[in-house]
Every structure is written in structure tokens, then in C-alpha cells.
Amino acid sequence: MTDRIRRFLNDSNNKVHHKYRKSFDTALVPQYRSLKTPTERMAKRLELVLASETPVVDKEAKIVLLRTVHDIPSIFTDEEFDAIHKDHCFHENGYLSNICPNYAKVIKLGFKGVRAIIDEKYDTVDADGKLLYDAIRKELDAVADLMARYKAEAEKVGNTVVADILSRIPEQPAQTFNEALQFFRILHYTLWAEGTYHNTIGRFDQFMYPYFAADIAKGVPEDELYELVCEFFISFNLDSDKYVGVQQGDNGQAMMLGGCDKDGNDAYNRLTELCLDASGELLVIDPKINLRVNKNTPHERYVKGTHLTKAGLGFPQYSNDDVVIPGLVNLGYSLEDARDYTVAACWEFIIPGVGMDVVNIGAVSFPKLVTKTIDKYLVGCPDMDTFMAHFKDEVKAECDAMEAERQNLYIFPSPWMSTIMYTCLEDGRDVTLGAKYNNFGFHGTGIACATDSLASIDLNVFKTKTVSAEELVKATKANFEGYENLKTQLRYGTPKMGNDNDEVDKYSVMLLDIFADSLKGRVNGRNGIYRAGTGSAMFYLWHAAEIDATPDGRAKNEPFGTNYSPNLFSKVDGPMSVIKSFTKQHLDRTVNGGPLTMEFHQGLFATDEGIEKTASLVEAFIQLGGHQMQLNAVNRDVMLDAQKHPENYKNLIVRIWGWSAYFCELDKEYQDHVIARHEYALDSQM
């Protein structure tokens, strides 16, 4: 790491840039709320936000842009928002999120090329298209004006590198790696400023590689290009605290590396490796690194990824092309598009530039549906097959209800995202009206809890008859108070998912097949389909708080395991038994995403042997047909001490679900969940 990058990193970690922050002037709000259409309001608000920004340029910087304005009011009044809500449903706060635009196209076009497309097509579109084009023109001008002010500031502080770059871009196409990185920063920065969020990065090592390779061919030293990658990575952390989801760090700045190209050829390249190196050296929470692999991936790439895991960031998250690509094709994605997949904010599989999928529009709580089936049918139920038939009906009914609640979806217009999606730019159609793919994704939460509960009912109620249906219902309703011996039997004396037990694991296979079958054939209000997934997000807490105790011995309010992983209290034989349990399912049917998540003590990574074993474990998961995996290097003692002395652990990073965060910035319930997760060891199994 150079001294320049070290200084930038220290300034970022110490939040030196916060001194430039200011609130948006609310006196400007009437200027955009007075306009007639939401599209005009979005464009005017962006113009006012960017005009309010203060250019900040470090004399040694080579990539600039810093958000200085925050607390930006909505384009709608509360009354207008309520009126829209009467006839529409909203996803989260109504803005676009979790999609990946075609950054590469606009970087190649430059603003001049974008304006040429608008000029050519302006007279061919309808009134709404003209409205969008007019909004895009205004936004382009607003961004260009901001960059002109940045150029002037660069000249003022004597930064000739930035001043020279901004004399060409964004008006002209990028020609060098530095220019392409700066152009990306402009596009990505403006998405946040306009109001969209969870703006993912996409396949960075693919669309940036031509610029990287061209510079190498010109004789630019690789060390200089690596330094640019480091500076680029740091830029994601300057503003990330403004883009808070459920918790600090939940901002969706996910980067996909590796995988294949659209012809199916291996696309892993030198830039891929430099990105992995930069993430491991900088130790910052953004960008969140994902790595595509397959059954033919060389072992050394897993070793490379494991060295990054060792750093404690919760990166990389692995995705298996052998499962994901066929799964997407089976859902109706073209093979070429499926091969180009990336991830959304956390793990959901999306297609850059052509996907408007709403990948987290709902979440099915499987333990809730188990408890509903118990309450309605267990007493008097003759056998497990009959119980499972009732459970299947409950899953379908839940999907029916969730589908009904998500009709007539309203999304705020986004002229800027429409520009970068490019196909929408060419068609004169706002991206919120739809793109090539407009599918909805449902998470599936508490998979292990539900599986263990179903297996427990089968064993204890129907096979061994060690507990009656009536007693089980009473015990779970009472949170096992007065039934302590039964709780112990259910919790510790009944087999659990994660131990390669076919009698237990078969219920996870059935559960996920029922889930996929219940969504198959449904068409949403945007003419898309519904996708099943294995992720939990924050629902491992939220859904767990909604139900009584469960037949697996879980107490009321006790959290589920994270994503696709064993119950927190399950005793498992080891990581290989977990992997075997969690790869028996038809995972190509649940490609909305959701990783098997596993924690290992930091000490494992202290030796080459530990690194090799961990890399082999990930490789085994892929070879066995796992779809997605995420490993964490943790130290429970350190986290417990951090709760007591947070001032000593400002930069302690942990993985939460599909994102990483600074441990001490999390609410205690999320801290406690990370501490409570399984901490695996690798032994002779490997």
C-alpha cells in the first residue's frame, strides 16, 4: 500500500470527510414539488441537490466525488404519498433498488453519445418518452455542471490529474482505466443522489478489464493500476453511511468477480485478482466481494478467496455457475443473459442492464407455516404424509396471500437509472415501467428450523409416539414452561439438519420443492414470474419474533439461523456434514439466492494447512452442487469484549447476512446473533 493510499484510507476510516457535510436547504423543496409529474420532480430535485454539493478535491486524488448534501425530502408530500398508496403497493420506500444498470455502455458513449441518442429518437417517442428524455437532458446538464465545478476545484488546488480527466469526461467516452473508474464513480454517485438505493456494482472485472488491459499494453505499470483500484474501493466507503438499510453497512454495494463470459468461456482475469488483493489489503466493508466459481475452477482460486476470508471481512461470497446458470435458464432467462448474472445488494441473482427484478419483495416464514399446520391439523392427523399435504396447502395459501398483497406496484420514476439501463434510454421508457426481466423474488426463511420441526413431528409424534399431538401443541404454546424434559428431548435428543441425516434432510428437499412448486406458473403485475430463494435477511430475527416455540425445541423469540444454515443451537458433526445436508436439495429451483453461511474461528486461518482445508471445503460444496456459500472468520471472545469496550474495536468487521458491517455500529440484537452462530472447526474430516 502506498503512502498516498494509506492516507486516504486513514482519512476514510476516521471520517475526516464528514466535516464537509450539510443538510439540504428545505427552502428549495417547493421548486420541485410544484412541478406536475413525478418524472419532472425527480429531475429537478437532482438538479437542486447537485447544485448544492460542495466540490471537494484532494491535491493527490485521482478519483473524486464526495456526497456533502444529505437529508433530502421526498418528491411527494405526505398527503400525495398516502393518496398513491391507496391504489398501489410499495416495495420498501418506493424507490428503485437492487438492480444493476449497464454502466459500461454509458462509459463507452459519454454524455455526448447519450445526447445523440436522445436527439435521434426524440421525435419517435410518445409524450411520456419526450417527458423522460427532457428529464434526462436536464440531469445530464446538472451532472456536467457539477463536474465542471469539480474541474475548477481541481485546478484551484493544483490537482492536474483530475483536472485533465474532467476536461474530457463525462462528456467524452473514457479512454483510460483512470477515466473509466472516474466515469463509473460519476454514474454510481448520481444514482444515490437521485434517490435510488442498493445500487449494485455488477461484474466490475469484466466491463473494466478492456481499459485495464489497454493501459497495460501502453506500458502503464501494474502497480499504478492497482493503486487506482485501491483508491476506487475507498471511494465506496466515503458515503456509505448515508445509504443505510436495516443497519449500518446494509447499502448494497456488491461487486461480482470471475465467472464466464456470454459464450461460456472462463472470464477470470488479472483485474479479478487485483480486486481480491485490494479488498484484503484495505479491510473496508465496501465493495462487498462476490466470486463466481464452478466445478472446473482451479483450486488456487479457492485458496485466493480463502486468504480474503482470513481478513475477516466476510468476503468473498461464492456463487456456483453450474447451478445458477441452468436455474436461471429454467426460469426463462436466455442462456446468454444467465451467463452474465451478478448479484443484487446481498445475494439475489440478477442480470445487469436488462433486469428489473424486485428480488426481495417478500419473505415466506417456513416455521410460521409449520406452526399454522400444527395448530389446524396435527391433533387428529393420521400420519405424516397427511400432515405434509396440509403443510403444502399452507405454503400455497401463503404465496397466494403474498401475491395478492403485491399487485399494482408503484415505483418512483428514475430518469438517471433509465439512462444507464440503456435499453430504456433507447426506447424512451422509464425503467420503472419494466425491462426485459421483471420478476419478483421471495426469500424463504427459517429453513433449518422448519425442516427440524417437520422431522421432529415425524419421529416423535408418528414413528416413536414419544409425545402426543395434543401434548406437543400445549408444550409449544406454553413455550415449554412445565415441559422442560420434552424441550430437552426435542432440542438435543432429536436429529437436526446439518448432520447428513437423510431422514431429516429429506424434509428440506420437500420443503424447497413445495416452495418452488407453489410459485411456479404465477405471473406478477409486471408480466414477470416469481422466484423462490433460500435467503433470510433480517427475517431471522423478525420472523422468529412472530411465532411460538417450535417442535425442534426452539424457544419463543429465539432467532432462526442465518440464511441457509443450521439452527443456532443444533449440535452438528462438523462442516462437511453441514455441507452434505445443505446440498441434497434441488437448489437450481431456488435461484433467487441465499447462501449457506458458516463461521470459523480466526485461528483456523493462521496456517497454510488451515487455508488449504478451508479452500477445499468451499470446493467440496461447489462439487456437491451447492448454489451459494459465504464463510466468516470470527472470534467470539473478541466480539464479547467489543460489546464491553467498543472504543477499542472501531474497525472490527463482521458479516450480518448479505453484507458486512462494523460490529460496534450494529444494534445489540444483531451483535448477539453473530456471537451465537456456530463456530466450526476443521479436523480429520478434511
Structure characterization notes:
The protein is α/β, with parallel strands linked by helices and 686 residues long. The strands form 6 sheets. It has a 6-stranded mixed beta sheet with strand order 4-5-6-14-13-17. A 3-stranded parallel beta sheet has the order 9-11-12. Strands 1-2 form a two-stranded parallel ribbon. β4, α12 (270-282) and β5 form a beta-alpha-beta unit. α13 crosses α26 (608-623). The longest helix has 31 residues, at 127-157. The two termini are 35 Å apart.
Main traits of this protein?
6-stranded mixed beta sheet; 28 helices; globular; 17 strands; 686 residues; alpha/beta; 3-stranded parallel beta sheet; 3 domains; 9% strand
Task: Give the structure's gist in a few sentences.
The protein has 686 residues and is of the alpha/beta class. The protein contains 28 helices and 17 strands.
